[in-house]
């Protein structure tokens, strides 16, 4: 009996040890010794080593809100005077007036497309669209230019037909009145869309690079891409309106010179096409992932090489999502004694402050002598 009692005591002690060894979650009536950690939630830090600017608020930036108000006002003015030109051109039997009305119609369509692209660009970045929808603004400007070219091509054909066949009549009085109103309308729209003066401040975005030996400079006012494209269109229409006004004055006093109507359409349509060349050049540069305007490859490279500890740089890429959103990436080969974190912080700071990049991605690696002969590490040739 003593042996059995001793065995029973050993079994009880063994059972206690097994119960104590179990995890707290398996015990029904025991409380955990430490509180369980709560699920971590992402919070915005006031400053982080890889983010120069704070997280932007949702919606349009102040610069884009201003651009939207400009486009709304210009679109309303353009639509009202376009309707007046259609009526006046029909009554005057003037192809030049109808040409100007068609250009206003193209401007209305382009500005509505720009408003849509501004709304689309506010959508946040996703895992599919990691850069967001910023480039929709550039696509809207491209659609605006293409639409103007198409309408101008049709009107150039009609003007050529009128030059071949003189069976048309022009009402000089109605043409003169409508052309005068068209000039006033284009002047009003140019005033609404004008973006003179210093640009808004947005941290790193929109600044131009300053040469190292000259220090920081005042950035050039590039403005919003959509508003810029609409402003260029209005300037082309304004030039054409002055030409139509001159032709209407000539036809009003000298009706026998009615050929001035298709000739003015022909000449000033070509001028309108030429006025879109700068916008088209900038749009194609962005879509082809070209180096941002006024940002040179050599100054950026020299800035990175001037960082203490950097021996070489390669895989340097510079491009722009829009005219004011510039991006840079590069590999930095550093000495074995250099501090990678210090080099990364200093290089990023110099790129942000001197060139105004919106995003910089730098990879730090140890310098190897073989890099001098590596084909992938060589600089790209001049264009």
From TrEMBL:
GO-annotated molecular function: antiporter activity; metal ion binding; zinc ion transmembrane transporter activity
Membrane-spanning parts: 71-92, 141-161, 173-193, 230-253
Superkingdom of the organism of origin: Eukaryota
Tagged with keyword Ion transport: yes
One GO BP: zinc ion import into organelle
Chain's role: Probable proton-coupled zinc ion antiporter mediating the import of zinc from cytoplasm into synaptic vesicles and participating to cellular zinc ion homeostasis in the brain.
Name listed for the protein in its UniProt record: Probable proton-coupled zinc antiporter SLC30A3
The species this protein was found in: Pan troglodytes
Taxonomic lineage: Eukaryota, Metazoa, Chordata, Craniata, Vertebrata
């Amino acid at each position: 009996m003593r042996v059995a009692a001793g065995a029973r005591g050993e079994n009880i002690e063994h059972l206690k040890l097994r119960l104590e060894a179990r995890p707290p979650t398996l015990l029904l009536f025991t409380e955990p010794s430490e509180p369980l950690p709560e699920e971590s939630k992402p919070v915005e830090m006031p400053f982080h080593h890889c983010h120069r600017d704070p997280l932007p608020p949702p919606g349009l930036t102040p610069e884009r809100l201003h651009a939207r108000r400009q486009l709304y006002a210009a679109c309303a003015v353009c639509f009202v005077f376009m309707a007046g030109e259609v009526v006046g051109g029909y009554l005057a039997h003037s192809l030049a007036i109808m040409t100007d009305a068609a250009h206003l119609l193209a401007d209305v369509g382009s500005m509505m497309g720009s408003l849509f692209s501004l709304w689309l660009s506010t959508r946040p970045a996703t895992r599919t669209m990691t850069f967001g929808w910023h480039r929709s603004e550039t696509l809207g400007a491209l659609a605006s230019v293409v639409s103007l070219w198409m309408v101008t091509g049709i009107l150039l054909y009609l003007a050529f037909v009128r030059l071949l066949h003189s069976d048309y009549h022009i009402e000089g009085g109605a043409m003169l009145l409508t052309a005068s109103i068209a000039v006033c309308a284009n002047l009003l729209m140019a005033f609404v869309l004008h973006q003179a003066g210093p640009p808004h401040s947005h941290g790193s975005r929109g600044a131009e690079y300053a040469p190292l030996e000259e220090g920081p400079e005042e950035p050039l006012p590039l403005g919003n891409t959509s508003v810029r494209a609409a402003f260029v269109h209005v300037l082309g229409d304004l030039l054409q309106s002055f030409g139509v006004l001159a032709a209407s004055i000539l036809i009003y006093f000298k009706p026998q010179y009615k050929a001035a109507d298709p000739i003015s359409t022909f000449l000033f349509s070509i001028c309108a096409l030429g006025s879109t060349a700068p916008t088209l050049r900038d749009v194609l540069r962005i879509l082809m992932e070209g180096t941002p305007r006024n940002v040179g490859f050599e100054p950026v490279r020299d800035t990175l090489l001037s960082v203490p500890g950097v021996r070489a740089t390669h895989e340097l890429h510079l491009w722009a999502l829009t005219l004011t959103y510039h991006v840079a990436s590069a590999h930095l080969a550093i000495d074995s004694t250099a501090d990678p974190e210090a080099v990364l912080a200093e290089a990023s700071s110099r790129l942000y402050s001197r060139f105004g990049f919106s995003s910089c991605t730098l990879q730090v690696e140890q310098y190897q002598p073989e890099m001098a002969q590596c084909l992938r590490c060589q600089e790209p040739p001049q264009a």
